[in-house]
Amino acid sequence: MRGRWSMYHPTSRVLAVLELLQARPSITGPELAERLEMDVRTIRRYIMHLQDVGIPVESNIGRHGGYRLRPGFKLPPLLFTEEEATAIMLGLLGTSWLEIGQSAVAVEGALAKVSRVLPLRARDRLQAISSHLFFFSPQQDGRPDVSLLITLSEAVGQRQRVLLDYRSPRDQNTRRKVEPYGIVGWDGRWYLVGYCCLRQDMRTFRLDRIQRAEPLDEPFEREEEFDCRAYVEKQYATDRSARYRIRVEFRTSLYTLQQRIPSTYGTLTPTANGVMFECQYDHLEGQARYLMSLNLPFVIHEPPELRETFRQLAAQMLQVADAAPPSEVGPE
Prior knowledge:
Mean pLDDT: 77
Structural class: alpha+beta
Strand order of the largest sheet: 6-5-4-3-7
Strand content: 15-25%
Oligomer: single chain
Largest sheet: 5 strands, antiparallel
Distance between the termini: 81 Å
Helix content: 40-55%
């Protein structure tokens, strides 16, 4: 048994191949095998199954060969299995947790459409999930707009350079021409990975600092073996020179924290008094607001700067609390 598709009946896997063929104008056997975690020989057998039942799957031999549905062929809408519908609904419900500025109207509309095509029993079960499953995203200000994600993703796919208006960590605005390689989510942030023509080297750009992205009619050649995820992981897992090491001990159970703090945000270690939360972060005010939003008692171990950040936030709150409305201010 290998991969997540090995648990399904062969019919489900054949339908998964068909879904990918419908979604792509052309796709190679190795690509299908990688996406579905199968071997190429199995993919070839499933393609033959589809052809045997009358699905016009065409194959092209050669360097740029692959499989495709005959142009103009349209399939009737496919019904979701309960497992597929659950996966879709969990993904839709989790869009706020992913910190993407997706429209709530679009999410609700998609949820309604998925629910409408399900049998009554499956619909009731998924309704129970959606009614009692809650996602909380603390960094509302750092969300990238979904239109920015689409613009950058299209540029990545078409291998076109983009012109970025970018705000640096020191609040300096620069204009960069970038060859985009991919988009990676890491440690609660979204990053564009690409070759910076200004610095003449690979760089990461935080999406929440991109003020504007303009696709250019300038194609580029990408280094095929470059791994965007490994690049981000190596950079941010080892380069901590500009980041704070945060250690906060919560007075609660490990289970409670695991429900509140995503595993990508840091490590949780049980202690004699509760649970130690450790992470690396470069913006203390944002981290302080996040810790407070959890609404759980905790003690700061390090860094000392985090204590000062809390004092500053407390002063701001007191100032707001003490400020009188204009109608209550007496005459001078």
